[in-house]
Write a structure and sequence with these properties.
Layout lengths: L8 H6 L2 E3 L2 E4 L14 H19 L5 E12 L8 E10 L3 E9 L8 E11 L4
Antiparallel strand pairs: 1-2, 2-4, 3-6, 4-5, 5-6
């Protein structure tokens, strides 16, 4: 997955980069929520962008916008003050809606800190 230029400014603020099939959000002091913990919003943002990119990759060559319908995040454990990874799994893609599952973890991929389920609207561009 290559990071496209059209990512929202929030992705740049999070400092997201690609590493293998995952997105990495490098730790930064600006991501602290409660003392000693990552802010849940930054984790949710990382996961939403990972899901969006998975749908865009599946639509390669198709001109379309991808917009969130709903995003549900389950926070499974505290996020430590370290790099956070996320990987999205496309569960189903239809003509208008995609269903995506995303997992976020830190030092141990087998101990996720959050899991998300997303439904994304696919707005295909028509020739004018």
């Amino acid at each position: 997955m290559t990071l496209p230029d059209q990512l929202p400014p929030y992705a740049a603020m999070l400092g997201l980069r690609q590493q293998g099939g995952a997105l990495v959000m490098p730790y930064d002091v600006s991501l602290i929520g409660s003392p000693g913990r990552l802010h849940g919003g930054s984790v949710a943002g990382l996961m939403e962008i990972a899901g969006n990119l998975a749908v865009r990759a599946a639509l390669a060559g198709v001109s379309a916008q991808v917009k969130p319908i709903n995003v549900t995040v389950d926070y499974l454990r505290e996020g430590a003050l370290e790099d956070t990874f996320a990987e999205a799994f496309l569960m189903r893609i239809g003509r208008r809606v995609a269903n995506v599952r995303v997992e976020a973890w830190q030092s141990d991929r087998n101990r996720p800190i959050a899991a998300a389920r997303m439904n994304l609207l696919i707005v295909r561009q028509t020739a004018a």
